[in-house]
Design brief:
The protein has 441 residues and is α/β, with parallel strands linked by helices. It folds into three domains: 5-145, P-loop containing nucleotide triphosphate hydrolases (Rossmann fold, 3-Layer(aba) Sandwich); 149-302, no CATH class; 341-441, Trna Endonuclease, Chain: A, domain 1, CATH 3.40.1350. The protein is built from 17 helices and 15 strands. The chain has a seven-stranded mixed beta sheet, sandwiched between helices. Strand 12 and strand 13 form a beta hairpin. The longest helix is centred in the middle third of the chain and has 21 residues, at 209-229. The two termini are 24 Å apart.
């Protein structure tokens, strides 16, 4: 994504989190799927340090994807860093893809104890912070969860500017303009976002399908090989070795984003649709096997699971959660671009936007109805319904009905792509999706 210092694009939502914890004791751990911008975020943080008075000699940076550090063991790692620490100076230590180094946690703990330092780490697999590893840090870390570009960031990375103007009725409206200052339709920009997705590297290759697919192929292959098929080898536990089964599960989850899903349903579908014909004599894979493969996909940050919550019973339900894919461009790479499931795709986009804004998100169940998302943060709670169209009375009533059943007074919102009115209904806010996606976090 980075070619020159000047072209380093801002990711303020994440950079501001790092700056907020600068020079504090916790180790800063940036996690997220490969190629979502973690390395560039560390570059942004190093630039911030240099711009605010740190010297280059105070910064030690190592990327463990580089051949330069391949084969380095934990003792050599400690020795390398120790040899570059300046006496009586605050040091800033940056370690990219540290999960590739066995026993990295021992060295990081030693750095904390032995040196006056501020430590920043990235990792592309959730087991970097699994219980066995986080124990070594004794809870002294803060996790920054990084995602691919939001719709708003997508516009910025691809050279579009959003301006606000006052309509004749006095309402403030947003318009997008290209690099020549010409206005661009929101629907066209949204279609581009749906088509190509939000991997930051796409801004380098341009919105050209062949180039984008080549980039996404690289992301997918690296995630599958390094973060899934090789992960158990490094951890010394049971390995995931069946690449064919893994891909079939990936395709199933990508094809069923936003649908209620169980492990048993995944297994049954793979067999009934003859996606596993070569297994006919072996029978269907066990739910434990499916669970291990799905768990690996979530650890690699390719898929996220969302649980259901019984609003009246005030408890999490153990059945029929949903899965969303971290980037719609990856879904198109896997399945091909198609103009179907647009409702679930819209849900997918809204779900990750809520995560970016720091919310914990669940599906809401009330009586026999479902609320798409319950977003909670500190003492804040918002109920969201997401729909493409609310111009018909039947659709309007269907989307409003579950929210009307909620007995509390927290905010209730319907996010809609197309509507003939944004007036509130019985205290329920109607908001256009674009206004939501373009709002400040």
């Amino acid at each position: 994504m980075i070619r020159t210092k000047e072209e380093l694009k801002a990711r303020d939502i994440y950079l501001n989190q790092l700056i907020a914890f600068q020079d504090t004791e916790p180790v800063k751990v940036v996690t997220g799927i490969r190629r979502c911008g973690k390395s560039s975020l560390l570059k942004l943080m190093r630039r911030h340090l240099l711009d605010t008075g740190a010297s280059p000699e105070q910064i030690i940076s190592m990327n463990f994807e580089s051949m330069e550090y391949r084969g380095m063991d934990v003792k050599a790692f400690y020795k390398y860093v120790k040899g570059r620490v300046l006496p009586d100076k605050r040091m800033y230590l940056f370690f990219d893809e540290l999960q590739r180094l066995d026993q990295w946690e021992d060295a990081v703990n030693s750095f904390r104890v032995d040196f006056d330092c501020d430590i920043y780490i990235t990792g592309s697999n959730a087991y970097l912070l699994s219980s066995e590893y986080s124990t070594y840090l004794s809870g002294r870390y803060v996790e920054i969860k990084m995602l691919p570009l939001s719709f708003k960031e997508f516009l910025d990375f691809h050279g579009y500017e959003v301006r606000e103007r006052k309509a004749l009725a006095g309402e403030l409206k947003k318009r997008a303009y290209d690099s020549d200052g010409e206005p661009v339709d929101w629907e066209d920009l949204y279609e581009a976002f749906l088509h190509y997705g939000g991997m930051p590297g796409i801004a380098d290759v341009g919105l050209v399908q062949d180039r984008v697919l080549a980039l996404l192929d690289g992301v997918y292959s690296t995630v599958v090989m390094r973060d899934i098929l090789e992960r158990e080898k490094r951890r010394g536990q049971r390995r995931i070795t069946d690449a064919i089964l893994l891909r079939k599960i990936i395709l199933f989850l990508a094809d069923n984003i936003g649908s209620n899903t169980s492990l048993n349903a995944i297994s049954n579908t793979l067999v009934s649709e003859k996606m596993l014909e070569d297994r006919a004599k072996q029978g269907k894979p066990a739910n434990q096997t499916i669970s291990a493969y799905v768990g690996a996909l979530m650890e690699s940050y390719m898929f996220y699971e969302i649980k259901r919550f019984d609003i009246k019973g005030k408890e999490e339900l153990k059945t029929l959660g949903k899965y969303y894919i971290v980037d719609i461009g990856l879904r198109n790479y896997l399945l091909g671009y198609r103009d179907v499931d647009t409702g679930h795709i819209l849900e997918n986009i809204v779900y990750f936007e809520l995560l970016r804004r720091g919310y914990d998100v669940a599906i809401g169940k009330i009586d026999n109805k479902e609320i798409d998302f319950i977003a909670t943060k500190d003492d804040e709670k918002i109920y969201y319904q997401v729909t493409e169209d609310m111009t018909s009375e039947k659709t309007r009533e269907r989307e409003l009905a579950p929210l009307k059943l909620v007995p509390d007074n927290y905010e209730k919102v319907v996010l809609v792509m197309r509507t003939d009115s944004t007036a509130s209904v019985d205290g329920i806010k109607i908001q256009r999706v674009f206004d939501f996606l373009l709002a400040d976090n």
